[in-house]
Amino acid sequence: MRRAPTLPLTLYTLGYHSYAMNREKFIVPPLCEVPAGPFLMGSDLAHDVHARENEMPQHTVVLLAFEIAQFPVTVAEYAYAIKAHIVPEPFDWNRQLTQPMRPIVNIAWRHALAYAEWLATITEEPWFLPTEAQWEKAARGTDGRIYPWGDTWTPERASFPYSPIGQHPTGASPYGAHDMAGNIEQWVTSYTMPYPYDPTDGREDLTVHEDNTDFKGSLSGIWAVRGSRGGSGDIPSARAVWERAAERGGHYPSINYENEYGFRLLRGSTVS
After folding, report:
1. C-alpha to C-alpha distance for 114 and 41, rounded to whole angstroms
2. Closest CA relative to residue 29, chosen from 265, 231, 213, 251
């Protein structure tokens, strides 16, 4: 594996590196270390007035150590997977190409998973999408805070929808992960099954890449969908609700109807 010379300067200054292997080029993002141990997952209505039913009960989850990408996957990164014929061009690709520093969007869950599998194969490193639990711990730390920076909604700390990565460093999580509140919805591996979170109950089954109507989903009774986190939204009055670290989104894995769906990578074990 050798260094490849083509990398946007801004990505390089943020800690990204580009490489070439067997004539394929790819980019490796900067990572944040999340240590092993317990954290508070979900919401407590007594602490968070915006808590939703599918975020409760708040409970303790113990995770292994892992590393998570400091930023969501960018257009510049995803372009290499398209060139390698790993994933198709997403909707509005030509427009997205004009903004290589923005997170990639219009991505179906199965294509996000394919990207992670491709990077794992070419680097011989364990790249995955994060589980709901891993994403949430990376976003809020261990103390059950509502937002990555604390319990008070501070709009200047949150990322505006579809903005270039790294524009709001004061909104970084306790571990240094950026764009965890706002910007885009980020796919996770998990089905949106009820809490408490249990990685052994089928919600982390990655063998099903298409819609799975065998599971009942959230407490509202919808069919199970793959989860998403990050709470993208362009309605100012709703951002304080949508961009909480415990907010649970989701969509069907085979088709992406929502243009704010992208993803970030995890390196380590996908087993919580």
Report:
1. 27
2. 265
Q: Per the structure block, which two tokens stand in for 10?
A: 């801004």
The pLDDT tens digits for 100-123 are 999 999 999 999 999 999 999 999
* CATH T-level fold of 29-268: paralog of FGE (formylglycine-generating enzyme) (3.90.1580)
Q: Is the dihedral of CA 133, 138, 144, 149 positive or negative?
A: negative
How far apart, in whole angstroms, are the C-alpha atoms of residue 258 and residue 195?
A: 25
Q: Grade residue 231 by pLDDT with cuts at 50, 70 and 90.
A: confident
Question: Cα–Cα distance between 234 and 182 in angstroms, integer?
Answer: 9
| Structure confidence by residue, pLDDT tens digits, 51-75 | 999 999 999 999 999 999 999 999 9
Which pTM was predicted?
A: 0.92
Instruction: Return the structure tokens found at 127.
Output: 């790249």
Domain spans, the chain: 29-268
